[in-house]
Amino acid sequence: MVGSECYSNPPILNASSGVGYVTNIAGVNTYVTGSPLAILAIVLVSDVYGFKPPLLRKIADKVANHGYFVAVPDFFNGEPYNSENVSRPFDAWFKDHDPAKGIETAKPIIEALKRKGASAVGFAGFCWGARTVTDLGKAKLIQASVLLHPSFITVDDVRGVEVPIAILGAEHDSIAPPKLINQFKQVLDAKPEIDSYVKIFANVSHGWTVRYDPNDPKAVEAAGEAHTIMINWFDKHLKK
C-alpha cells in the first residue's frame, strides 16, 4: 500500500470556496485567483484531494495577494481521492492517477499561461504534486519550484532539477522522512549553480501545510511559515 500519510486527515471539499473562480485552462478545470493582468503566474499542484479544499484555495489567494496570477488545476479530472468510497481504495485510485503523468497535464497549462501573457511561471507541489513539479524542473519548463512535504520522488529526481528549488519537509513523515530530505539537500548542495533551499519543520507531520486545523494556532503558524517561505522563494526568482 502506498504511504497512508498521503490520504490521512482528509479535508473538507467545497467547490465554492475561495475569492477566485473556476475556469478552463487547456481543457482542465482550474481554480484561478489574482489579477488576470499579472505577468507572473504560479501554479499549485495539489495533494490527492484535488483543487477543491478551502485551505488550498486560501493558500492560492494568499499567493495572489503578492502580485501573481495563481492557478490550481484539477489534475484528477473530477476524480480526487475520496476516503469515503470504500469500493475504491487508495491503491486502486492511485493506479489511475500516477503522479508521473502529471507533467503531461501541466505542459499545456504552462503554454496557455504564456499565451495569456505570463513572462515567468513558478510551480509548487504538495505531496502528490511534488512529482509533477520536479519533472517540470528537470525539463526546465518552469522558472522556479517549491516542494512541500513531497511524495513519490527520489534523490535522482532532485539531482536532475535544473531550476531554483525549495523543499520543505516535516519532522514526522514516513514518506519523505528527514533522512531523505537531508539527502535531497546534499545533492542540491553539490549543484551550487542551481539555487536551492531545504528546511525540515519541527513538530509537524506530512501534509501540515495544506491539511492543518485552522482552529489550532500552532498548526496555523507552522503552515503560515511554510507559505511565507514559498512566496518569498517565488518573489526571489520570478520578480527579477
TrEMBL record:
It holds the Pfam family DLH. GO terms for molecular function: hydrolase activity. It comes from the Eukaryota. The lineage of its organism: Eukaryota, Viridiplantae, Streptophyta, Embryophyta, Tracheophyta. This is Dienelactone hydrolase domain-containing protein. It comes from Vigna angularis var. angularis. Residues 30-237 form the Dienelactone hydrolase domain.
